[in-house]
Design goal:
Helix content: over 70%
Number of helices: 17
Keywords: Antibiotic resistance, Cell membrane, Membrane, Transmembrane, Transmembrane helix, Transport
Shape: globular
Structural class: mainly alpha
Strand order of the largest sheet: 1-2
Subcellular location: Cell membrane
Membrane topology: Multi-pass membrane protein
Number of strands: 2
Strand content: under 5%
Distance between the termini: 17 Å
Protein name: MFS transporter
CATH superfamily of the largest domain: MFS general substrate transporter like domains
Radius of gyration: 22 Å
InterPro entries: EmrB-like, MFS, MFS_dom, MFS_trans_sf, Sugar_transporter_CS
Number of domains: 2
CATH class of the largest domain: Mainly Alpha
Amino acid sequence: MPKTAPSADPRRWTALIFIALAQLMVVLDATIVNIALPHAQAALDISESNKQWVITAYALAFGSLLLFGGRIADLWGRKQTFVIGLAGFAAASALGGAAVNEAMLLGARALQGVFGALLAPAALSLLAVMFTEPRERAKAFGIFGAIAGGGGAVGLILGGVLTQYMDWRWTFYVNIPFAIVAAVGAVLVIREPAGSRNSSKLDVPGVILATAGLVALVYGFTRAESDGWSDGGTIGMFVASVVLLAAFVVVEARVKAPLLPLRVITERNRAGAYLSLGLAIIGMFGLFLFLTYYMQVVKGYSPVKTGLAFLPMIAGMIIGSTQIGTRLMVRVAPRKLMAPGFLVGAVGMAMLSQIDLDSSYPALILPAFLLLGLGMGTAFMPAMSLATYGVQAQDAGVASAMVNTSQQVGGAIGTALLNTIAASATTDYARSHLAGAAGNPRLHMEALVHGYTVAIWWAVGILVVSAIIAAVFINAGRPNMNQTVAGSGDDQDQDIPVPVMAH
């Protein structure tokens, strides 16, 4: 017998503003510090070998604790976890802005990661349990998807403005007003649906194994970037990660109250969404890195001009997510948006592989950015919605954490993998063109750009694989407009089940 969804919270759209603001803050923080890093390094006398830890400390803490944060949100309540995450993130940001030495800055970045891991899944799972009507859900996830996709580029712009016109410390302090407004709004406006908490105990062995396994994985890719793929420590980290994560799966299949119920990731539509999203992020993160360097080092753009150059990509993402994705998601199956979206993104990425020393921004980079933004925005929105669709309300936090985990791990892999490919191609190009690149500035630039283009072609391939996964794995049909729970699980296109909140 079909069950109807409960009456919706009348203040859910106001709540979305504060949830989106918090998500923007978290996504911004992944890139805003990148542009400020050279200034912070000089001010605090951070060594060349330790500068990567300003980025890695955040990524390690955030990526490895997300599953734990998602389950805490399910157990404690999403609103409470959301507010605690905001308060802690603001305090960690204040600590980072006031840092007087390297250790204080690195500690603040790790703390930001810890509280971000509470905040991010709580934000997405609040959205999942508050918006259950398909049309509204499409709009809400369209806005959220645009922020998640374009926030990194906004971080580059804001980081450039704050660093160039104020001080690197403001890339930390800027989080505080965001957090205060979002926390006050959450306390006043957000209401969780009744009965959506999970009353089971915390799976401590699962927490330990998942956290250790993800730390080893993210750190392995970080080491690969700095020490090489064949380094003993790098290989050791990857082996440890495989062993720990395999043990985690075994434990989760046996315990009564698992940290990550395997039903969340074995359902083929969610699995396809997590996998395609994670792969797409691998390509996107690498691109941000290369294009930032290309514009500043090769083209000579200022930090602010570099940030502004990314604006068309953000505009494309917003249009793709809130207009194309939102309007079509209630009419067509998600894979019919995701697969073409990733392919359009791949075309934009392929155009960027044609950059050289004298490439025109309006003629080449601008149209490529627009295509990339439109494609990724269109694909991200149904992917993020599908990744939390149909889960039991008590699992919404951990399902949301899997979305964030695929993004964080994808970002770490993308940065390390594509950076290594680019560096290797640059070295080979310089060597094959005889005279050392150091003695010939133009050859040095040509070698750099060659490295970027080789890595961008890899990113094109990764986006094509994302499109294939979306087309093959995902078999959900368009959302059921009658708000009923779907029945069978055969290989034909099925109606996406609308989550029914437990009471």
